């Protein structure tokens, strides 16, 4: 087997990734369904059914930094003043003052909901003005005591609409004591007044209108522009070699459940495509516009099967096949009843009806050519091509009757059947490897097409005019990896509240 494999390599076997022998005919409309190919002498070889659609994975991240930056700039970090006493309307003898400070806003994401939260610490003092006695006061958070805390949070639920626009909905989810512990409530005992709710109301006032601000900033993101750019890249043919091109041909986009990554919302997208490999001049790019976004599994009724499927061909031309089979047959001797027959030459060629012809020249007791025909098949366990139904054609049957009747009818045929074998798994493996290398490349700066194609399964064997073609289905996974999404310039827009902050670069 090693010798045969070496002959295959040395013969530089014709290897073609022709996606079903598709020749680039860019002006002709593409036929629907399975395509047929012509064998020798114009016979039509049975076509394979169309492959199921493929899927490519893509992730789009919505960076929340611009919205958080706007919120950070519009909500003061400190507010209140311990020197500004304010009377309690329900008890004019009591007055209070507080000073608060908040931490920077932090983002956590769960599912399609982002929570923007901060912790407010505050200190407060209360006074009671007695009519005929000096004022008395008390405090919380001053001196050695720990200051009480409030937790503030806004939640933003985001969805990506079919028109590729972000649809956020933000609300104030919490302005409340950070815990149920007594340290997080401020009750000034001497004046019998709980300052906690007064601080809560003051903080809530600072957040007035901020939910709308977050929504406005999130809605600015032009997700369609980014996805449209990647969509256009996938419609460009990818060069495999001089006259061989991969066309991805994306057609639909569906979205799965949102996830979280590094403080951003991430939408996993599945691109449905019908990739093929064509030979010839560079095909023009596809012109399919970016479609509306569908829910995963909803577009076209059923979910496209996961993974990548591409049809590829591996071709063994007849010259290379002859370099392998001739040494196995030439010199083979058959003797019976004192008569001797020697095989002097053997050549494989195309025959009608998708078959091959093995023509053997013999001399000795009889001279001439004997022609055998049969249909090549692929034996998966051995990884070899062979012609298991190889048999005499009609003319050679008559020759056997006339001059070779001394030789058992099946002896020569069976000897040829057992030796007319060609190693073919290496051809398919080379085709698979070439395809995988073509699918791993940078499409542009920061955008890389990555794929693994671990398997290629032979579906059919066709004897064509110039070669025996193994038609296989390659199966794997592919995705677009975006290392760094470039910032997208956005038109200036007026925020819905007075505070303004320039957006941070988009993720």
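^ Assign residues to that structure.
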């Amino acid at each position: 087997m090693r010798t045969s494999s070496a002959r295959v390599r040395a013969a530089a076997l014709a290897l073609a990734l022709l996606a079903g022998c598709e020749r680039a005919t860019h002006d002709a409309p593409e036929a629907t369904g399975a395509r047929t190919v012509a064998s020798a002498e114009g016979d039509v070889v049975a076509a394979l059914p169309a492959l199921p659609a493929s899927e490519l994975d893509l992730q789009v991240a919505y960076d929340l930094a611009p919205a958080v930056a706007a919120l950070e700039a519009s909500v003061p970090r400190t507010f209140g003043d311990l020197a500004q006493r304010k009377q309690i309307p329900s008890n004019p003898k009591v007055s209070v003052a507080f000073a608060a400070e908040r931490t920077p806003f932090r983002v956590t994401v769960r599912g399609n909901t982002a929570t923007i939260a901060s912790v407010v610490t505050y200190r407060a003092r209360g006074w009671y003005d007695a009519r005929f006695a000096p004022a008395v006061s008390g405090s919380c958070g001053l001196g050695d005591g720990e200051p009480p805390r409030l937790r503030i949070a806004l939640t933003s639920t985001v969805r990506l609409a079919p028109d590729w626009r972000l649809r956020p909905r933000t609300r104030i989810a919490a302005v409340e004591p950070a815990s149920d512990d007594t340290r997080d409530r401020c009750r000034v005992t001497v004046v019998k007044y709980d300052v906690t709710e007064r601080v809560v109301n003051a903080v809530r006032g600072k957040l007035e209108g901020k939910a709308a601000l977050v929504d406005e900033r999130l809605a600015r993101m032009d997700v369609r522009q980014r996805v449209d750019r990647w969509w256009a890249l996938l419609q460009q043919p990818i060069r495999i070699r001089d006259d061989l091109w991969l066309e991805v041909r994306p057609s639909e986009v569906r979205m799965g459940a949102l996830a979280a990554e590094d403080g951003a919302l991430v939408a996993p997208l599945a691109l449905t495509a019908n990739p093929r490999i064509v030979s010839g001049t560079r095909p023009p790019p596809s012109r399919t516009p970016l479609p509306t976004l569908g829910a995963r599994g909803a577009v076209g009724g059923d979910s496209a099967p996961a993974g990548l499927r591409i049809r590829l061909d591996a071709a063994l031309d007849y010259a290379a096949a002859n370099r392998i089979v001739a040494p196995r047959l030439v010199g083979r001797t058959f003797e019976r009843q004192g008569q001797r027959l020697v095989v002097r030459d053997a050549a494989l060629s195309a025959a009608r009806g998708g078959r091959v012809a093995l023509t053997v020249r013999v001399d000795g007791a009889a001279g001439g050519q004997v022609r055998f025909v049969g249909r090549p098949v692929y034996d998966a366990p051995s990884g070899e091509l062979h012609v298991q139904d190889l048999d005499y054609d009609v003319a050679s049957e008559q020759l056997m009757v006339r001059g070779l009747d001394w030789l058992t009818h099946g002896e020569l045929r069976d000897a040829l059947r057992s030796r007319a074998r060609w190693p073919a798994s290496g051809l398919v493996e080379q085709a698979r490897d070439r395809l995988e290398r073509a699918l791993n490349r940078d499409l542009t700066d920061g955008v890389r097409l990555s794929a693994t194609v671990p398997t290629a399964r032979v579906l059919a064997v066709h004897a064509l005019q110039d070669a025996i073609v193994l038609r296989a289905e390659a199966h794997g996974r592919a995705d677009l990896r975006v290392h760094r999404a470039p910032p997208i310039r956005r038109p200036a827009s007026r925020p819905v509240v007075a505070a303004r902050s320039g957006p941070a670069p988009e993720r």
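The chain has two domains: 1-26+36-62+221-507, 76-206.
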